[in-house]
C-alpha cells in the first residue's frame, strides 16, 4: 500500500509539472516558470489616456530636479571624467532596473511597488518597499523647500535689496504645496509639466550658455581635474540619487494610452537625460572650477545678476510644480497604511474627500 501511494503521488506530481509547463508555454494566467499570475480585473489593467508626448514630458520632469544644478559641484568633488563615467553607469543600472520593474508588473499583474513586493516575498516585502518609497519621495520633497527658499531669497536680495530669511520662505511655500497635494490623478499634472519643462529649459539654456561663454573667453578653470581620488567615494554616494523619479515609473506607465510604447520611451528619455546631466556637470565644472557654488545657477547669478535671477526663478517655479508629482507615491503609501491600521477610518462617502484632503 505504501509503494502504491508513493507511485500515485509521483504520478500526480509529474502530471502537475506537465500541466504547469503547458500553461506557461501558452501564457494566459501563468507566467515564466509556470507560476500563476495574479488575476486582475479588466478595469485595473485598463490603459490611461495620456499621449506619448505628455508621458514623455512627465517622465522627464520627474527625473529632473534640483540635483541637476548640483551636478557641476558634484563633478568638482569627483572630477569631470570620473563624474561622466559614473553618471552613465548609474543611468544604465537605473534603466535596466526600471525595465525589470515593468516586467515584474506585467508578470505579477500588480500595479504598485508595494503590491509587487508582496507578490515576490510576502507582506514584509510590501512593508519594506513602501517604507523605502515613502522615505525617498518625502526626502526629495524636503529638498525642494530648501532649494526654492535659497534661490528666491537670493533673487530678492540681488534685485530688490530685500533680505528674507529662508525659513520664512519655507513656511510660505506650504500655502502653495498643500493645495497642490490635493491633486489625486497624475494626468491632471500633465499640462503643468509642460510649463515646468519649459521653465527648466530656460534655466538650463541660461546656465549652459553662460558656462560655455566663460570657457570660450577664459578657457578651462585652472584647478579642474579629470578625477579626484580623494572625492570619488563622496561623489559616488551622491550620484546614485541623481535620477529622482524612479518611484514614479509605474504610475507614469499606467497613465499612458499606449503602455506598450513605454519601454522604448523610457530608454530614449534616459539616454537624453544622461547626456544632459553629463553636459551640465562637465561644462559647469570646467567653467567655474572648484570654487563653484553649491548650485551652478548661483554662480551664474553672481556674474550676471539679471539673467541669473530669471533662471533661478524659472527653475524654482519648475520645482514647485514638480512637488505634487514627487509627493504622489508617498501620499498614496501613507494613506493606504493609515487606513489599513485603522488610524484613518473613512465613514460616509461624502466625508471621504474631505478627510483625505486633511490627511494630505
UniProtKB/TrEMBL annotation:
Query: Which cellular compartments is it found in?
Result: Membrane
Q: Which residues form the Amino acid transporter transmembrane domain?
A: 49-340
Give the UniProt keywords, A-Z.
Answer: Membrane, Transmembrane, Transmembrane helix
* Span list, region Disordered: 1-34
InterPro entries in alphabetical order: AA_transpt_TM
Annotated Pfam families? Aa_trans
Q: Does the keyword Membrane apply?
A: yes
Q: Which GO terms describe its cellular component?
A: membrane
User: Predominant location of this chain?
Assistant: membrane
Query: What species was this sequence derived from?
Result: Pinguiococcus pyrenoidosus
- Gene Ontology MF annotations: L-amino acid transmembrane transporter activity
Q: Please identify the protein, giving its name as recorded.
A: Amino acid transporter transmembrane domain-containing protein
Annotated membrane topology: Multi-pass membrane protein
Q: Where are the transmembrane segments?
A: 80-102, 160-180, 192-212, 232-252, 264-288, 308-331
Report whether Membrane shows up as a keyword of the record.
Answer: yes
Amino acid at each position: 500500500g505504501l509503494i502504491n501511494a508513493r507511485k500515485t503521488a509521483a504520478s500526480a506530481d509529474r502530471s502537475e509539472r506537465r500541466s504547469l509547463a503547458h500553461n506557461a508555454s501558452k501564457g494566459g494566467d501563468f507566467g515564466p516558470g509556470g507560476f500563476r499570475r495574479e488575476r486582475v480585473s479588466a478595469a485595473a489593467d485598463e490603459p490611461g489616456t495620456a499621449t506619448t508626448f505628455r508621458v514623455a514630458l512627465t517622465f522627464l520632469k520627474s527625473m529632473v530636479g534640483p540635483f541637476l544644478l548640483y551636478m557641476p559641484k558634484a563633478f568638482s568633488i569627483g572630477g569631470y571624467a570620473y563624474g561622466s563615467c559614473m553618471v552613465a553607469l548609474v543611468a544604465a543600472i537605473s534603466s535596466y532596473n526600471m525595465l525589470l520593474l515593468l516586467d515584474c508588473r506585467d508578470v505579477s499583474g500588480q500595479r504598485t511597488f508595494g503590491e509587487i513586493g508582496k507578490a515576490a516575498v510576502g507582506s514584509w516585502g510590501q512593508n519594506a518597499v513602501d517604507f523605502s518609497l515613502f522615505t525617498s519621495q518625502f526626502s526629495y520633497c524636503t529638498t525642494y523647500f530648501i532649494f526654492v527658499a535659497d534661490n528666491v531669497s537670493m533673487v530678492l536680495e540681488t534685485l530688490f535689496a530685500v533680505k528674507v530669511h529662508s525659513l520664512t520662505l519655507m513656511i510660505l511655500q506650504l500655502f502653495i504645496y498643500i493645495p497642490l497635494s490635493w491633486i489625486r490623478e497624475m494626468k491632471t499634472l500633465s499640462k503643468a509639466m509642460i510649463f515646468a519643462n519649459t521653465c527648466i529649459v530656460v534655466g538650463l539654456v541660461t546656465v549652459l550658455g553662460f558656462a560655455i561663454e566663460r570657457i570660450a573667453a577664459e578657457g578651462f578653470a585652472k584647478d579642474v581635474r579629470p578625477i579626484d581620488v580623494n572625492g570619488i567615494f563622496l561623489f559616488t554616494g551622491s550620484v546614485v540619487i541623481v535620477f529622482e523619479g524612479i518611484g514614479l515609473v509605474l504610475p507614469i506607465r499606467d497613465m499612458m494610452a499606449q503602455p506598450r510604447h513605454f519601454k522604448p520611451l523610457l530608454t530614449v528619455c534616459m539616454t537624453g537625460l544622461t547626456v544632459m546631466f553629463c553636459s551640465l556637470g562637465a561644462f559647469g565644472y570646467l567653467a567655474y572650477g572648484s570654487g563653484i557654488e553649491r548650485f551652478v545657477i548661483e554662480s551664474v547669478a553672481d556674474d550676471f545678476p539679471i539673467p541669473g535671477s530669471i533662471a533661478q526663478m524659472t527653475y524654482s517655479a519648475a520645482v514647485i510644480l514638480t512637488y505634487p508629482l514627487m509627493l504622489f507615491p508617498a501620499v498614496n503609501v501613507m494613506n493606504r497604511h493609515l487606513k489599513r491600521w485603522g488610524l484613518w477610518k473613512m465613514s460616509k462617502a461624502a466625508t471621504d474627500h474631505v478627510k483625505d484632503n486633511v490627511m494630505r
